[in-house]
Every structure is written in structure tokens, then in C-alpha cells.
Design goal:
Blueprint: E1 2-3, H1 6-26, E2 33-39, H2 43-59, E3 62-68, H3 74-86, E4 92-95, H4 105-111, H5 123-130, H6 139-150, E5 159-163, H7 170-178, E6 187-191, H8 198-203, E7 207-210, E8 227-231, E9 235-238, E10 246-249, H9 254-257, E11 261-264, H10 271-291
Parallel strand pairs: 1-11, 2-3, 2-4, 5-6, 5-7, 7-8, 8-11
Antiparallel strand pairs: 9-10
Length: about 290
């Protein structure tokens, strides 16, 4: 069993971007600028946004963090997005999800200029991805593909089972894995809450991408020998013995699954850092479209 170390792979990507951005600065060209919007004070969201801002700093990017109270009116948030859309210095706009219930995720995502949608959620970018056109790929699936590429994982002709069908991870992941690319060229099965006998599908899988948000759902008896496991899940569970007051659990029961795998991502330190690395790559790509 070998670890798909997202921290190491993300560090390598940030290092490459840092060199590229330093070159832009030396030539007097525009450097990438990511604007992040955070609504409320959700602990997990605070952590994620702080990690994204820090990653920008490490890669030499400019970043802006815009905060709103939990009770902010939807229109006020949409007005801010339009302001950022019109700002020529901003290359990427990120609205940290989840949003409060009184704000429509769909309206917010659709309000972002597709050319600045570095999270890759806008329908225009999703449509391009489905057709295999150059676009901003959703950050988590993009990060997973970058991780597989970094470690030279051969996916061609493999049977991949994606557990979960969200628009953020599951659906785009299934499209990317089945695409005529490297990594890619998999035969893909998508399982979800209405799938009968998920265990049987998982036992056939050469690659399992677990993205359903249920702690330790994938157990050792659901995995065949030599499988590649990508654990997207991250759930905070109360743990008073820890300084933080919680522990993080993935969708995969690591202790029982890991001994059977050829490769597996840890939680934390697997997919999370790669999501941020992909976000930075998308922001750099947006900036370069302006630099020409």
C-alpha cells in the first residue's frame, strides 16, 4: 500500500506556480489575483478559506478575502459579485460553500463571470468540460486528476466506481475519468443513495472515488485487492480529547481498507490540498488569458 500524498503533490504544483508568477512579476506583467467571499463564521469554511489565502501567498498570488455576516441579504452578495466581475484586477472569484439557507447557491454560482469562475461550477464551464473543451474544471475533481497524474497512476481501461453524484465532485469526476485523456479512459460506474448493492459495484472497482459525505462508509470488505482509493469525504466529529475539539474522518474506513489497496489518499492530507492547488492553477490560467 502506498499513500497518494496530496500535501507533497500540492507543494510541487505551488512551487511551479511560484516560479511562473515570479517570472510574470519580473516582466512587469499582471500577477494572479483571487478574491474569496466568506459568508458567516462556519468553522470548517473559515479553515478552508484560510488555507486558500495562505496557498495564494506561498505561490506569490494576490488574494482578497471579503466577509459578510450570516444574515447578509442575497442581493447584497450578488452586488458584490458583480463588482468583482467588473474589476479587471480580479482573475478568480471564489464563494465559499455552503451558503446560508436564505441564499440560493444556484443564483450565486450563475452570477459569477464564467471567465472568473475558478471553482468551475458555472453551467457554461460545466458544459465545456462535458464536451472536452478548454475550461475551468471544478477544483476538487481537477485536483484528483492532478494527483493521479503526479503519481503516474495508470487509469487507462480501468473500472472506476464513483460513489456520490454531486455537481461539485461526483458528476464531474465521472466525466473526467471517462474522458479520452491521461489520466482518464476509464469505464465509469456512478453509485448513489438509490443504488442497490453498492458493495457489489465497489468490489468490481479498480478505482474507487468516495464522495458521499458519510464517515467511513467504504469498509475493507467492499474493496478488492490492489484497488486505488480516493477519499474525498471530510467530516468533523466531536473529540474532546483533541485540542481542536474535533477529529476529521473520511468516507473510507482507512484502517480496514488501506491494507488491501495499491494506493490510497489519507484524510486529511489527500484530496484537500489538491483542491486548493487546482484552484490556484485555474486562477493562474485566468490571469494568463489576460496577459496574453
Amino acid at each position: 500500500m502506498q499513500i497518494l500524498d496530496g500535501k507533497k503533490a500540492a507543494q510541487a504544483i505551488r512551487g511551479e506556480l511560484k516560479i511562473d508568477v515570479a517570472q510574470l512579476a519580473a516582466e512587469g506583467k499582471k500577477i494572479p489575483h483571487l478574491a474569496a467571499i466568506l459568508v458567516g463564521n462556519n468553522g470548517a469554511s473559515e479553515t478552508y478559506v484560510a488555507a486558500k489565502v495562505k496557498a495564494c501567498e506561498e505561490a506569490g498570488f494576490k488574494s482578497s478575502l471579503i466577509r459578510f455576516e450570516q444574515e447578509v441579504y442575497e442581493n447584497k452578495l450578488l452586488e458584490k459579485i458583480q463588482e468583482l466581475n467588473a474589476d479587471p484586477d480580479v482573475d478568480g472569484i471564489l464563494v465559499q460553500l455552503p451558503l446560508p439557507k436564505h441564499i440560493s447557491d444556484e443564483k450565486v454560482i450563475n452570477a459569477i463571470d464564467p471567465d472568473k469562475d475558478v471553482d468551475g461550477f458555472h453551467p457554461a464551464n460545466i458544459g465545456k468540460m462535458v464536451q472536452g473543451q478548454p475550461t475551468f474544471i471544478p477544483a476538487t475533481p481537477h485536483g484528483i486528476m492532478l494527483l493521479l497524474k503526479h503519481y503516474g497512476i495508470d487509469t487507462k481501461g480501468k473500472h472506476a466506481v464513483v460513489v456520490g453524484r454531486s455537481n461539485i465532485v461526483g458528476r464531474p469526476m465521472s466525466i473526467l475519468l471517462s474522458a479520452n485523456t491521461n489520466p482518464g479512459n476509464c469505464t465509469v460506474t456512478v453509485c448513489h443513495s438509490q443504488t442497490k448493492n453498492i458493495k457489489e459495484f465497489c468490489l468490481q472497482a479498480d478505482i474507487i472515488v468516495a464522495a458521499l459525505g458519510k464517515p467511513e462508509f467504504i469498509t475493507g470488505d467492499m474493496v478488492k485487492e490492489g484497488a486505488i482509493i480516493v477519499d474525498v469525504g471530510i467530516t468533523r466529529e466531536t473529540d474532546t480529547s483533541r485540542k481542536s475539539g474535533y477529529k476529521l474522518k473520511g468516507d473510507v474506513a482507512f484502517e480496514s481498507v488501506a491494507p488491501k489497496c495499491s494506493w490510497i489518499t489519507p484524510v486529511p492530507g489527500g484530496v484537500g490540498p489538491m483542491t486548493i492547488a487546482a484552484l490556484l492553477k485555474n486562477t493562474y490560467k485566468s490571469c494568463m488569458q489576460k496577459n496574453g
